[in-house]
Structure formats: C-alpha cells, structure tokens
Amino acid sequence: MIYPEGTVLRYATVTRVNHWITAICFVLLTLSGLSMFHPIFFFLSALFGGGQWTRAVHPWIGIVLALSYAGLVYQFWRDNFWTPDDTAWVRKFDLILVNEEEGVPEVGQFNAGQKFVFWAMALLIPVLLFTGLVIWEVYFSAFTPLVVQRIAVLLHSLAAIAAILVWIVHVYAGIWVRGSMQAMTRGYVTPGWAWRHHRKWLRGLTGARSPGPTSRPEGVP
Amino acid sequence: MSGLQSQDYIRRSASTLTPPSARRHELEVAKLIDVSRCIGCKACQSACMEWNDLRGEVGHFRGSYDNPHDLDPNTWTLMRFTEWENDKGDLEWLIRKDGCMHCEDPGCLKACPAPGAIVQYANGIVDFNSDACIGCGYCVKGCPFDIPRVNPTDHKSYKCTLCSDRVSVGLEPACVKSCPTGAIMFGSKSDMKAWAGERVAELKSRGFANAGLYDPAGVGGTHVMYVLHHADKPSIYAGLPNHPAISPFVELWKGGVKPLAVAGIALAAIAGFFHSVVAGPNEVQPEDEARGRRLVDREDDAR
User: Fold this and answer.
1) Is the ipTM beyond the 0.95 threshold?
2) Which of B150, B259, B281 sits opposite A178 (nearest CB)?
3) A156 part of the active site
4) What is the pTM of this model?
5) In this structure, is the dihedral angle defined by the CA atoms of residues A32, A33, A34 and A40, taken in order, positive or negative?
6) Domain range holding B202?
C-alpha cells in the first residue's frame, strides 16, 4: 500500500490483516453464539445455513480467532503495559467523554481505553477457548464430567457477553474518535490525528526517525 | 415424535411466545416402574428397540448384566443391575430400568437453544423434535439424570419418548406392554400414585420399612416414577439421584444470565448511540493538524 505524503504510518499491513481476521471471526462468533444463546437471536443461525451448521461452524471460527488474537498479542503486548500516565488519563475520563482532551496526559501508542480492550480480550479469549473446547460436543464431550461441562457453558456465556460488551466499547470508540477507523483500514493517520490523540507517540516517532511521517511504501527505510 | 400437530404444548424449548396449547384437557400420564417386581428380563429394552426401530452397536462384555453398558443414541431404556449388601449382610439384586424421567420441570428443555426441539405436552411427556435439534448437547448438560445422548453421526439428541406416538392414540408405551410381571404400569399420574401407594404398603408389610415412591420434588415431580424398596437411599439403584434438581449452573445460565445479558448488550449499544447524540464525534481540529504538521515538518527539515 502507498501511504499519502505527509501522513503517519500507524498499523503495518501485517497488523491490519491480523486485526481484520480477528474482527471478522469475532463478528461471526457473536452472531452464531448469540443465536445459540437466546431465542430472540435464533434467526441469526440462518446466516450460517441453519442451526446445525451454526453449531458445527462456531467452534472452528473460535479456533481461528484464538490463533489470530494470539498474533495481535504477540505484536502489541509490549505497547500495552499500564503506566502511571494511564491512571492519570482514566482520572480525566469525564473530560475525554466530552471531547475535551486539553489537560489530559499525552498518550503514547495506546491510551488506557485501548489497553483495557487489549487486556480484557487477552483474558476473555483464552477463557472462551478453553470453556469452548470443553463444550465442543462432537469431539470433547466424552472427556469431562457433566458438572464441568455445566460450569464451562456458564463461564463461556459470561465471558462471551463480557467480550461483546468490550467489543461494543471498542467499535464505538473507533466510530466516535474520527480518523481511527482509517488507521485500521488504510494503515495511516494524519499528523493532526496523531497530535490530538497520541501526542507522545507522535513525538517518539518524529524524534526517533522511525517509519512515522512517510511518503514511501512501508518497509523501505 | 413430530409431524402430527398436537396443539397441546405446555412447554416449548427456546420460545418466548406461548406455544399452541388449546387442547390441554388431557390427563397427566405417568409410567410407574415397580423395582421390587422387576425380574431383569429386559423385555422392555427389547420392546423399546422393536417399537422405536433402534439397533445399537454390539458392544463388549464389561463384567455386568448391563447390556449395553450405558444409554446411547440407540438405547433409550436400559436395565441397570446393582449387587447391594443390606444391613443384615444379605445380597440384594437391585434392577432399575433407566431412561428419561419426563420431569415436570425438564432441565433438557430449559437448556435447549433450538426453538421447538424439545416440547412438553399437556399429558406431561417431554419429547424431542429431532428435525429442530441442532446437536449442541445442551440438553445433556441440563438433564439432572444424565439421560439424553447425542448421535455422533446425525448430530441429533435422543432419549425415551414415553412412546408419545403410542400414547397419543391411546396405547400404552411399548415397554409397559411387554413387561411380563406388571412391574411397569402406565396410566394417569394420579392412578399410578394410588397404585404405588398400595405397592409401598405391601412392601412395608413385608419388612421394607423404607419402601416408597420416587417422584422427586426437585424437578417438580416426574412422569416416570419408581417404587423403591429403599426409597430412603435412591442412589444405591445404580446412581439414581437422591435429590435431583436442575444444576444451579444451568439455572444461572438460563435463568439469570440469559435475559440480563441481552439487556446489557442492548444498553451498551443504546449508551453508545446517545453518547454520540450528546457529545458528538471527537474530530481532529484544524489547529491539531497545523501543530501535528509542524512537528512532522520539523523532523523532515532535520533529515
């Protein structure tokens, strides 16, 4: 991909592909999972070819998502350590909510909200994976006693609901903070976006001559 | 059993609306299994296979009369044999015909996510509509008696239907018809309880002080009941639960989490929408762009 001159590279191609595999899997899992969770959502099973297909395909999508998210964890875990700045940022959340970001600590690569989403998913997805394996009737039902399966199905639904709530926050933040979605679809942001939302990150990029402001294809030094 | 419309549902799985239930003046039925009269001949097992056209795989001998050794998708009823030593040190051979208990409050139906895959008729019979079954195995987790079995080939769950097809046309279940000793009786639940009362009284007169009827209240009573000589300890009969009830984990999952989760998701989405209406989008301002540009340009100049 060619990034327009004067823009700032935010997510490299491999990151974006990894993210969108995760995102597509998450949406499919939410639709198929909800259809098996509450009758008002059962109609969603038609999107997957009916109830039997939904039941059959849901766990496989889950496997893909777990692997894909492991890729995101591998790429991002260092950038998501919690810092005192994040705590200070959270304290100013009332200002952030009304779009007043002056007086809020400068943000690095990720803000506290993004870090929360990252770690919440890093916790919930393994829970969903392992409880999901326990209740994967076709292959694994014979390996655990019924009481374990009952606990697993309860935990699976609780973790799934938590993950869906986190996902709603994540998607809404991407819509609310204009210009963010482009970072994940096209890979670049404008210097103004970086200045407004991730100033410390922008300062670091410009200071270190890292592949920040660029008119070159990525990968070219 | 499906195909013929029954219009006498009192419960229907994964349904938020009232199922067709106009024809509901029939009597509640019950099967009474008098364990004290059972001779373990397995005629009921054979009759069940015959009527329902089930043929299980030939298994392996595991040192017990249980054959096959467990319920499976092709074995909807099973004689379970227990050698039990009583207080006097005497051997008692306890033989229990296992299968669906047709709970008044069925855990399978509560857990089932597929609309109409499990129904309960006004006569109390709990029936699986296999066409609607998605093969998830939630019924297995919901059942307090560990009865349903998912067929790995067609991914449908199966269990005793109480011969709902026979009962609907006025016949008794096949197992009842085949029993040579009258250990399995079928009729209205009130008649069966009256008959069980006579049997329990007789057992008590013969020295079984703890004889009694197994119609566990924890699942609202059942439409398959046992007369037990030792009703004080049902578990000696090959693990018949002493106090069966739908697991609290299943109750929490289907009772609390299900509606609250949907409300929570809806609220989160609505909150996002109204935040957008109230606070509006967070947009990059021209001055942000200018200052960001300046920082970047400074760097470019340095290059």
Assistant:
1) no
2) B281
3) no
4) 0.92
5) positive
6) 9-246
